[in-house]
Every structure is written in C-alpha cells, then in structure tokens.
Amino acid sequence: MATPLRLLLIEDFEDDALMVLRELRRGGYDVTHTRIETPEALTHALDTSTWDAIIADYALPRFDALAAFALVQRRNLDIPFLIVSGQIGEETAVAAMRAGVHDFLLKDRLSRLGPAVARELREAAVRAERRKMQEQLLLSDRLASLGLLAASVAHEINNPLSSLMANLDFALNPLEPGVALLPEQEQALRDSMQCAERIRDIIRDIKVFSRPEDKQLGTLDVHRVLDSSLRMAWNHIFHRARVVKDYAARSLVRGREAPLGQIFLNLLVNAAQAIPEGKSGTQEIRVVTRQEETGHVRVEIHDTGQGIPPELRERIFEPFFTTKPVGVGTGLGLAICRRLITEMNGELGVDSELGRGTVFHLRLPVAREESASAPPTG
C-alpha cells in the first residue's frame, strides 16, 4: 500500500517536476504535491499548509534552494528538505549540508530519491518524538516545582489559620456564663468560622495534591477524592454550571490519592471550560460513580457543553494536543491523565456528541478487605 506524502516541490521546469514525482511514486509514495517557483509562493505554502517533505531545485530564476531553506528555518519548521539539481558543485553541496539541508541528489541519479525521502521522514519522526519527550519532562518539572511551592504556602497559611479558628471558637463560646452575643454578632462569627473551615479544607486538599508521588497503590475512598477535587475546581464551575452528584454506595478503590485527585481536577476543569460562562442555571456537570460486576468502580464526569468532534476524540489523548484557545493552560493534560490511570491498573476514555456534551469515564479496581486511607491532618 502506497505511503501518503504531502510534498512541496520547488521547481520551475514542468518536465523535471514530473520526473521527481514519477520517481517518488515508483518508490511507494502516494504523492499530493504543490509546485511553486517564487519566494512569495513558498511563504504562502508554509503559512497555509502542512508538509511532509520539501524537494527543491537548486537554482530558480528568482531565488535558490538555500534561500528557500532559510525561509523554512525562520519558521522553526522541522521538515525534511532535499535538493535535487542538474548540476551542483562539491563546494555548493558542502555549503548546503552545513546550512542544515538534509540531502542533495543529482537529477540523473534519482534512483535513490525514494530511499532518501524515507530515511529523512524516519529521522524527522524521531526528532519530533524527542521534542515531545523533552517538553513533557519540562512540564513534569514545572508541575513538581509548583507542588513544592503549593505545599510550602499551605503550611505557612495553616498556622495563622489555626489561631484564627481558635479565637473564633472562643468568641462563639465564651468562658464566662451569662455573656450573650447579639444575634447579628453571633451570625457574623459563625459565617467567619464557616469561611475559615473552607480555607482549612482547601489547604488540606492542596497538601494532598502536592504530596510527593508514591508509586505504591493504596486503598482510597473515591468519593472523598472526588469531593476534594470538586472543591479545588469550584471557582471554575460555579458561574458555568450546577454540580449534580450521583454516587454509588461502595467507593473504595485501589489507586494513588494525589495523582487521582489531579486527574479528577483536570477533568472537572475541562468540563467547566466546555460550558460558556453565565449558564449555571441551565447547564450542569454530573459526577457519577457505579459499582461494576467486573470488580471495578466506574467514575463518569458529564458536561452539557458543545461536545468534541469525532475526528478529535482520540487525538485529545495525544501529548500536548489541545482544543483550547491560545493562552488557556494545558493543565495536567489528558495524555498524562491516561498514563497515570493506566499505572493504577485503570482505564480512561471519552464519549461525546456534538451539541449534547461529553462524558469522560474511568474505571479503577475495587479495593477489598482494606480501610481507606485517612485524610491528611494539620
């Protein structure tokens, strides 16, 4: 079966262009090509389309292959760039290779064009994978640094918060009998205590989320982890949708609390961002858990957003792929979420219908004969 190849061909002679295309098809490629002859046409082609390879004649009336290659480099595009020429001197060939051109061939020796293109496509794929891995490492380092910072900030807040809550409790429950508060004073103090308790819960959640990663699986109460993630995501949710919880009776699973909480947080924020602001009266995010006969707990996060087009549903799990506008953070990333769930012997998938919304669903093994880990204190 022929390999698809999107080719940008820089050539001013029609016969030479046909010769290059014929050789590529003989080499097993199903070529879709655009032929150009000017710098303006090259600029337009690079800005408006995606190319698997570029093949250029060395000398054209208005520019040459090295000038064309410089245009590609200025856009930071890693596209295999090969020069095919009728005549090219050794010094010119050396200069081209030093500039970064991937290969050069003579037009009377085109039998190696197919293998040369295949080699450069393989090497370009390796370079792209290496870049993705480097970007993922940088993201992991950044998340780890943020986790350390969050844990430090949470600790610093916790000490004065404890004093604040103790003072509020003292004001609400004075030691001297017969000392009565005005109703307005008591209500104000109770409201303050509720706010302080919410801060305490958020600090507890931050400590869990920023805990150093432990590869050991433990027994978790998935409902408690979900509730913690809902609290962390609340500022993203409350002005977009109401939250409906539909929890099963049993909720103990095998997993790791910190990454599972991060996964739930990522899915909840994604669900919120799929819904326009100001729609909280008509839109909802539904969080469902179910016990399955297969020995798994299934967790579903539904949103009533616009849905995901069919052609993008599997791509959303590719590293760094996003449908979010520029400037909106990538968060943990669905690729990392799926990897973390797999490490917990679970599964993560998605169902979506345009105009109806999206459901992210994950399955985790049920925990047996163990008690759930206690929430962090302090």
TrEMBL record:
Histidine kinase domain: residues covered: 152-368
Molecular function in Gene Ontology: phosphorelay sensor kinase activity
Matching Gene3D superfamilies: 1.10.287.130, 3.40.50.2300, Histidine kinase-like ATPase, C-terminal domain (3.30.565.10)
Domain Response regulatory: 6-122
Catalytic activity: ATP + protein L-histidine = ADP + protein N-phospho-L-histidine
Coiled-coil regions listed in the entry: none
Organism listed in the record: Stigmatella aurantiaca
Entry's EC annotation: 2.7.13.3
Protein keywords: Phosphoprotein
Keyword Phosphoprotein attributed: yes
The protein's name in its UniProt record: histidine kinase
4-aspartylphosphate, modified sites: 57
PROSITE patterns named among the record's database cross-references: HIS_KIN, RESPONSE_REGULATORY
